[in-house]
Structures are given as structure tokens and as C-alpha cells.
Amino acid sequence: MRPVALVGIGKTPFGAFPDRDLGSLAAEAISRCLADAHAVPSQVEAFYLGNFAGPCFVGQNHLAPYVAAACGLTGIPATRLEAACASGGAAFCHGVMAVAAGLYDIVLVAGVEKMTSQPTPRVAQILASAGDLAGEMRAGATFPALFAMIARRHMHQYGTTREHLAQVAVKNHANGARNPFAHMRKEVTLDTVLAARPVAEPLTVYDCSLISDGAAALLLAPLERALEFTSRPVRVLGVAQSSDRLALQDKADITTFEAVKRAAEKAYRMAGVGPADIEFAEVHDCFTIAEILAIEDLGFVAKGEGGPFTADGGTAPDGRIPVNASGGLKSKGHPVGATGVAQICDLVEQLRGEAGARQLKRHALGLAQNLGGSGATAVVSILSRCGTP
Amino acid sequence: MKPWEPHFGPGIVYTETVVHAAPEPFVDEAPYQLAIVELEGGGRRTVRILARSEEQRVRIGDRVEFVELREGVPYYRKRP
Asked: C or N: which end of chain A has fewer Cβ atoms within 10 Å?
């Protein structure tokens, strides 16, 4: 397997854009990405698109060639990957593997979702189709309900408090307020989170990520060709994908995501680093409790210590391991298929030192964790500035 | 009972939530309580809790019993 580099990134802002369709969002992110890499469409040899539910949200299917054609990419293999909220991460993982294996040199990866054209109960229903339909969803579960049940159990087993969960939202909103591409650029207080409208107890609306429109794109190349495109290439040190059962009731312990642990172990091994080496991370905070599980399952803290560590500022921008300096899904927004790709863009901005007001002091080695459903897919990626470590 | 047939014996609440923001088919029923129940005979099942008042809602560790199946969904209630 040959080393792979990221040579271009591009994103749209995340938000509710009633006058934009799925194709135009994807095309904007891709055109920004190609411009960032000083590349033209004819150089792209293969295209991987992460998208969860375009056919349900906007009615269009066969999305990879649809998006490719809108961007002037015709005649190349164009493949859509669906892995619920990890669709973007899965597209990235498969794009990296194709370049690493030598199948192609220049590969474009994008993620897109257009969600806000549907009313919220319909969105909840479409999202619920990524869960176990015959069991938990038929009984009336939603994703907030599943994560609420995870939160209750985590509180029961480890003493995590309602305030610990709220601290995740307070931190990520503070970070997102400094991100011009974030959906909700607004700081919130602990009291606001606690007193907000309940969604699924104990989670309030401020524990949940946002329903957003948006797209993100990346250009990959073999490391040996990276300087043809950019003076600031970023190296993909490790990337791994894993899976697990869909239904929570079928998991031995719902306070841990086995797929995240397995993907992380593999990615750490590939990269030749451990959790203590990681300087900053973007993790999948679809709900506040999900960030607490993530920092535990990735090995940043011991199981059960995620809540107190967050409350003590350990994951703040000046903490031991800054998490979601971008604002996370919580504040930045969560256009499902775009999320995993946007997390990689956010790591690249930090690694290049181009994150503006969000720039972290230590930014040589970063990790992204993208989760599908209630843990049935996980993708973990580790990136470094070239020349490190 | 054959091993592949679902069983709905009594059990203990493993976790629970009260859903306020319901998906499309259940909007009129919200708020309602969901639980994952650890069955006495082994295994876990996602169920609805029958609760007409706050006191009838369940918490982790509560003992619950099967009441009925409605459109394939098992409904449970707190054991007196």
C-alpha cells in the first residue's frame, strides 16, 4: 500500500438553504476543492460520493453520476456510498484505499445532504430508517430516543450527570460561534441547554445536532505526486471502517460503540500512533452523549470518565485534547452525508494552520471519528502534516 | 417455546426514555415511554411502556411485565 495525501479541500457553509438543491451544493464544494488543489475536472480518475438519503429527502436517486456530471466529471467511475451518518467517512475510506492500492492516482471524494426541504417529523422518520426498523423503530424510537437511552445507561453505570452532557453543547457552540461555515453560530449557556424543550428525556433540543443542508469535498493523490497540487499536503496516516449490529437491544453494552473501538485500533495500528499522541480530534457529536462515548472509545480517557473530563475543560480548545474545535455536528450542523467528509476538511484546515480564530496551538496530528446510526458503522481517520510524526 | 419465536416474559428495565419529538407515524401519541427490557429468560427487547401518569413511568432496574402486542409492538407496564 502506498502513502496517500490530501491535496485539496472544499466546503459549502452548513445551514438551511431553501433556494439551493442537492446538485448545486455538491458542485459548489467540489469546485472549491478543485480550485484549492489547482486541479481541473479532467484530472480526476474516480469519484466517491457519501450520501445517506437523497432519494428520500429530495427524490433524486443515482446520485454519484448525477453529481459528477454537474461538475464536468464524465466517463469516470462514480460511486455512491451509504452508511447512514457515516456515509461521508465511508466514501473517504474507500477513496483512500483505492489510491493506496494503486487503482487510481487522483480521486475525488465528496459528501452531500439536502435535508431541510422536509418537515421535521418526516426528517425524523427518514433518519429512523437507518435504525432497526422491525424492532426499535416500529416501537416508536427515533435517533434522539436511542441516544437518550444510551445516555440514561451511561449515567446509571458511570455517574455521568445531566450537566456533563450539557457541557458538550456549551463547548461546541462556543467553538462553532467562531466558525463562519457553521449552521448555528451562537454561544449557549448551561442553563439554556438544561431548560430547553425536551426531545427524548434526558436530551433537550440543545443536546441534538442540527438538520442541515451542505456539502464537502476532498481531493486525494499518491503522496509522491502531492506537490504537483499543493505546497501544503496532508498525509493520511491511517483510516479504518468497522461495523456492528443495528439494534441497541442486540448489543452487550450500549455505553460503548464496539465499531468505534475496532476502527480506532486498526487506524492507530496503521498510523503507528496511539491515543496519547493525538493532538486534536473531530468526533461525531450527533448528540452530546455521543461525544462522551467517542472520547472514551477512542482511548482519550478511560471508560466512564468522559463526562467529568469534559466538564473540567479537557476537550476545550486549550484543554489536554481539543475536541470539535470546528463546533462539531452540534453547532456546525449535520448534513448527514457531508459530515464525515467535512470532518476531514476541518482536520486539514487545522493541520495547515488555516483555521483562523479556531486555530489550535498543537496541530500536527489529528483524528476524525464518524459514526453511522447508533454505532452500526464507524470510520476513524488519522491525518498528519507531511513530515510528521 | 421454540427458540426463534419471540417471548414476552417479565423483565427488568435496562434503559428507558420518554419521547417528546416523535417521528411521523407516532406524532399523535407523544409523549410516550420506550424501554429496553432485560427479559428473565435472557435477551433484551425494545418495548413501549403503558403509563397514564408520571408514577406509572419506569426507571432503570424497575421490574416490568408484558401486557399486550399492538401491531407487533410489545407493551409492558410496571409490576405492582
From this structure: N
